Predict the structure.
Amino acid sequence: MDNKYKYTYERTADYCYKGTDILINKLNITNDEDLFNAERELVSLRTYELNEKPLKGNFDFNYLKDIHKYLFQDVYRWAGDIRNCNIAKQDLFCLTEHIESFSKDIFDKLKKEKYFVDYDNETTLDKLVELFADINALHPFREGNGRSQRVFIESLAKINGIYLDLTNVSKEDMVIASHDSINGNYKKLKEMFKDNSYSISEAEREEYINVYCSDELKKLIK
């Protein structure tokens, strides 16, 4: 991976062990590679659990935070919490002081568009790409943004009659496509979403609505 796509973080004493770039974790692991492997294994297990028994929610910012908390609950004490340091990957992600306001804009817009359920599938895919790009630019968590937003977007796609699965997309391809989207170029993301999705039946869509949506949300989209 090109160095230009590596993360840079504003240094804050409450995230890393003193004198290191290793995140303080519930496992008390102080070796970078060991933490990477443990995190990957534990989050993969939690992702599997979410696939088997999804969280119900309103597809709002709280729902994204709930997903993050569930995925990373075994590793970080701040799972589900908004970061308090700034992050860049060549381009600067949303500044910490604007996360709440930017997230409100993103999810208010999603609600206003009725979670895309009134669009045809082609338009919905375009809307999902744009939402994915916005959530990526928001980057609300210190670690685990990509995995959380993928679960969120894949779940939202299902209640719109689209089965989207981005797990086979390489990390490098995802990083480059996400980087391009921050600069307003959605071409790679659109190709990625189109190549890794297919339409599902109305009966399946209804089943997913019952599985993923709160009672409040069901009333809005049915």
